[in-house]
Amino acid sequence: MIDLKNLLLPIDFSEPCLKATEYALAIASRFGATLHLLHVIEDPVIYLPMFESYPVPTREQFETYAQDRLENWIPAEDFEGCKIELTWVHGWPFTKIVEYARDCNIDLIIMATHGRGSVVNMLLGSVAEKVVRKAPCPVLSVHPDGHQFVHA
Questions:
Q1: Superfamily for domain range 6-142
Q2: Rounded CA separation 120/129 (Å)
């Protein structure tokens, strides 16, 4: 019998992540599992060209933004009966997701895929693909388009 006690939902605050959130809430509710929301704050140096003419936000500003978005990601009425854990960390998303899953005894990772083309994946790599290969538990990757088995 499958028994899921801890689910991990990596959150990047993107539109595809909303669909993965629907799946995570449905599964957490069905199994009475704790849903861990994890946001990884990447080093802003990666984005320096984007901020050429703007000041780079401080570390504290990134952290405040992450905390506020996590606290408001799921409306209270949507997670009745589910225990939610909110966490943000600094680092590389794929590495931190896998570490968190291992450290918190996660039974299932539910994460969005963004459906980028093969050229972008070749240059940047896919976080979801790396997590699937290295995770210490099963991973459900949710594509925002196509057939869905969770319905509102």
A1: HUPs (3.40.50.620)
A2: 13
Q: Where are the domains of the chain?
A: 6-142
For 115: left if phi > 0, alpha if psi spans -120 to 50, otherwise beta; the answer is left
86, β-bridge pairs: 37
Cα gap 54→52, rounded to integer Å: 6
Given this model, what pLDDT does residue 53 score? 62
Per 3-state DSSP, the chain is made up of helix, strand and coil in percentages (nearest 5) of 45, 20, 35
Quick one: tokens of 14? 């993107």
In angstroms, the CA 111 to CA 82 distance is: 18
SS3 43: coil
46 CA to centre of own chain: 19
- pLDDT digit string, tens, across residues 69-116: 999 999 877 767 789 999 999 999 999 999 999 999 999 999 998 755
Query: Which pair of structure tokens corresponds to residue 66?
Result: 């992450």
Residue pLDDT, tens place only, 26-75: 999 999 999 999 999 987 655 555 556 667 778 888 899 999 999 999 98
